[in-house]
Amino acid sequence: MLTLIGLYTCFCLLRIASSSTLTAPPLSALVIAFENVYDLSLLANTLSDHGIDATLIIPGYAANDLYNKLIDVEVLQLDVSADKPMHASKRSLEVCDSLFRDKEILKRIQEFQPTFTIFPALRHDGCLVPFAKHIESIPVIWIKNPDEELYAFECTRVALPVHSGGFWARLSTSFSGRTIFSSVKNDYLIPALRLATKYLPDVNIDLEHLYSDVRLVLWAGDTALRSDFAPLTELLVKIGCHHCRGVYHLPENLQKSLVEYRTGTIVVLLEENYETLIRELAKKLPQGREGQAVIWRNKSNTNVARPENLFIDEDVDRQDLIGYSRTRMVLSHCTDTEFLEAAFHRTPLICLPRDAHESRNAARAVELGFARSTEAANDHASAVEIAQIVNEIHETVAYRESARKVSVAMRDQLNPPSDRLVYWLGYIARTKDDTEKFHRPKSQARTLTEDIQLFVGLLVGVIIGIVCTGSAVVARYLVTANKVQISKGRYKQ
Q1: Phi and psi at residue 28, in whole multiples of 5°?
Q2: How far is the CA of 337 from the CAs of 30, 126, 319, 332, 334, in angstroms?
Q3: pTM of the predicted model, to two decimals?
Q4: For 326, 329, 344, 375, which has the most beta carbons within 10 A of its beta carbon?
Q5: Distance between CA atoms of 343 and 335, rounded to whole angstroms?
Q6: What SS3 state is found at 200?
Q7: Would you give the distance in Å from CA 372 to the centre of its chain?
Q8: Measured between alpha carbons, how far is 230 from 218 in angstroms, rounded to an integer?
């Protein structure tokens, strides 16, 4: 009798366990980065931190761009050479071809069986959307800069761009978006689909419905950075600062060195070709115990003579430097991720933008009141200008107060970005086989304002057409009548 009771109890427990969400199969993600390796490695690390098995695939030449604190993330490198300079689209096609030909990586992916395949839309979709279908994984789009946003919105219809400025500015922005889409389609998308057809003959590839299986779009931004589009579905998920966290202690030796400088620390996130600028800047800042320290996160040659207040470290985590209690400001190019990290940790910025996207971020940071921007080049003269900006920010409380307000706005949200990321990944995994797909965006979206503008435009066009036609008829009648009068000789003397 006791045996029967025991068996019945075990049976009930098994039924309860089988219906529990705790026994659901674990989620896994394959993150593929032909570009933006650092930011996508941060994403893979966040997924791993939240219990999602993460594997990252990158080109071999970009191994040095990885986030240096990856935990439990398997990194697979494609054998691609970067010796010859080439256009970004051609480079992506080369990496795509390498992925399709790498049997070891393909075997590893088959063993891994990822629930999701996450990748950028721009210069990735023609290769990786068919690949995700081939391995029976859910394709998830990741977007970062404005070009990627315009391209992804055109393809997925998850949002409508909101054009600011006057008529000509809106026309220029709209034309720019169409140009990006057309250029990528001709230079990358169509050749990539040919490659996919060659290597994946079992996949039905239709250019018009390429994105039919894409239901989740991850936006690697925040409204503090920009908000120039209107979402059309909840499946456009804002995850900009998903990796932002509290600050850990700096290494003991570095901490001890920086504390010696009582005026604080300047963090530099620039690359090697700014070395002269950084050394000259360090020389122009106050020296000694009452001076300022400069910490440069880089792999620069530490054997070269440098000012005593300049420290170089390649291993310390970037967020720990930005959020360090004695950090007074950050020298940065103002990429999206650096902007958000500085804003999150309420640290003023000095922006040295290199392109239009970074200039736009710099302008936004200046607008929010916690940054200054300069087009400083790699020369000695610009160090004087930056030293003056450093002094101004250090002596002006308004910069740090503005940074604090932005930080509070980013932190004071109902759900942290990492929680939103994990929840919506789980949602699309649970509803993978649903036929309704309630959150799928409409293929076309139009506003009442657009309809009114179209009606007004047609009305004005009709009125102008009638007026022009009437004027032409009257003019023709007058000319004809005049000719008739002349032919009858009525005006002859």
Answers
A1: -140, 150
A2: 21, 26, 11, 11, 8
A3: 0.84
A4: 329
A5: 12
A6: coil
A7: 22
A8: 15
